[in-house]
Specification:
By secondary structure, the protein is an alpha/beta fold. The protein is built from 16 helices and 14 strands. The N and C termini lie far apart (67 Å).
């Protein structure tokens, strides 16, 4: 069975970096079911083609295993050595694992770069015909070309073969393409050569992250991939529905933030907050950063994109928010060096946690207003006394600015989960008292469009450890 991948991205030889296979070598790999070979029939600046050829040994797979076959020639007379099946998925995982998982040590920027790609699968057994091929690949953004074959050229009355040569063309990252193929090739074949258990459920959700939940045939794909086992595919579908609902909630939250920005439509307020926090963190000279109450990871993404920050830790009490943050950061696809820079922790802001000690800076972006006021004292000790970073950047809403939104009823808080919102005087009184108590200095900065009467929508305090600033 043969899989070929072609790109016209320039220089096209970049494909070899992503695949981690040298274009001048014919490389062979021993697998449990035979051998896999990787070679490049075409390599130039304008076009590069890489091929993965599987040489399946169906007899060797069962030799000495005591398998009792109803048909003695079953290993000799079958299509398994010649068609793309679950064997190909295993080969993608074992031979092209770095590319499948989105890792490229030498050229990490290529991992997230969409490339013009053409992939040809020769041949693909399809239980469902040409219509199923188009219904599965076209929603993923591929142009699909299909070549069919007669079952036997000498006997045309026998009809068409269930095997097709399929050519897909689209602009994707290589990891996206390989993840699609990893999941979908066994789905078309509707057979697997290995046991399907809980680990296959996790593989489906991992490799289907970001695309399967929105696919119109996600039910059929899940059932086929998991061999129609109800305990597995029902769990998969439930988790896919949960993922879709979470994405819809994120969109709703973003819409709410846009509505909050009505007085200044040029730049969303949340974006201005993140920009202000990032500027303060950069100015501190920090190399290690805590994002406390990191939520779904928006600030973490900004931090990861800045090479100044060598150690980044996000902490949140919500496991679900951490899962979303991991997806937003694409932790399972990051190059190893990048992945080592960031870590997600589950924990509370009101308990001492030694994992949070020794950092240069900490950021709390729109966090404290979600705590009940009696619990603020616990956060103060955890952060200023025990974790004790050199710099702390903290933002919170300015209640006085709420009158600027016509859609916000009088005396109503901006968010249903806010426990309080402070005026500028209340925030400055609290922050100054905390700074004096724990040996910090503090300065205050407005975030967002500033009104002469009511100030800015967000207020930011930058705390600096006095012993640090004095040196």
């Amino acid at each position: 069975m043969l899989l070929s991948i072609t790109t016209t991205h320039e220089p096209a030889s970049d494909l070899s970096y992503l695949l981690h296979k040298h274009p001048d070598r014919f490389q062979s790999f021993n697998l449990s079911f035979g051998n896999a070979h990787v070679f490049y029939p075409t390599v130039s600046q304008e076009q590069c083609t890489a091929c993965l050829l599987l040489d399946v040994d169906p007899v060797g797979m069962v030799r000495g295993k005591g398998h009792h076959q109803s048909f003695l020639l079953d290993q000799y007379v079958n299509d398994r050595p010649y068609v793309a099946s679950s064997f190909m998925s295993v080969a993608l995982s074992q031979v092209l694992g770095s590319a499948l998982n989105g890792r490229c040590k030498d050229r990490p920027e290529l991992v997230s770069t969409p490339l013009p790609l053409t992939v040809q699968i020769a041949v693909l057994p399809v239980r469902g015909g040409e219509e199923l091929i188009r219904e599965i690949f076209e929603p993923l953004g591929y142009e699909v070309a299909i070549e069919s074959y007669p079952l036997d050229e000498l006997f045309p009355d026998w009809g068409e073969s269930p095997c097709y040569t399929v050519t897909l063309t689209g602009t994707k990252t290589l990891a996206e393409l390989l993840n699609h193929l990893y999941v979908l090739i066994p789905v078309f074949d509707n057979r697997k050569h290995y046991f399907v258990g809980e680990n296959e459920l996790e593989k489906l959700l991992e490799k289907g992250a970001g695309w399967l939940a929105d696919h119109p045939l996600k039910d059929q794909i899940s059932r086929r991939y998991l061999k129609y086992k109800p305990s597995l595919y029902l769990t998969a579908l439930a988790r896919l529905v949960e993922e879709t609902e979470t994405e819809e909630t994120e969109l709703e939250n973003e819409s709410e933030e846009t509505a909050e920005d009505l007085p200044d439509k040029a730049v969303p307020l949340n974006q201005q907050r993140l920009g202000s926090v990032m500027a303060a963190l950069r100015a501190s000279g920090a190399q290690s950063v805590l994002d406390l109450g990191c939520g779904e990871g928006k600030l973490l993404c900004e931090l990861l994109a800045d090479r100044q920050f060598e150690q980044i830790v996000g902490l949140d009490i919500s496991v679900r928010s951490l899962e979303i943050a991991a997806k937003r950061l694409k932790l399972n696809r990051l190059p190893e060096r990048q992945a080592q820079r960031v870590k997600l922790l589950h924990g509370s802001l009101t308990y001492r946690d030694r994992r949070l000690e020794g950092f240069d800076t900490a950021a709390l972006v729109e966090v404290i207003e979600h705590l009940d006021p009696p619990r603020l004292a616990a956060l103060e000790r955890m952060l200023f006394e025990f974790a004790r970073p050199k710099t702390i950047v903290l933002t919170t809403p300015n209640r006085e600015y709420n009158v600027m939104w016509e859609t916000l009823p009088a005396d109503q808080l901006r968010h249903a989960d806010h426990r309080f919102e402070w005026t500028r005087t209340e925030f400055q009184t609290w922050a100054t008292g905390i700074a004096d108590q724990f040996g910090y200095s503090v300065r205050f900065l407005p975030v967002g469009p500033e009104d002469k009467a009511v100030g800015a929508p967000t207020q930011m305090g930058v705390f600096e450890l006095k012993s640090h600033t004095d040196t």
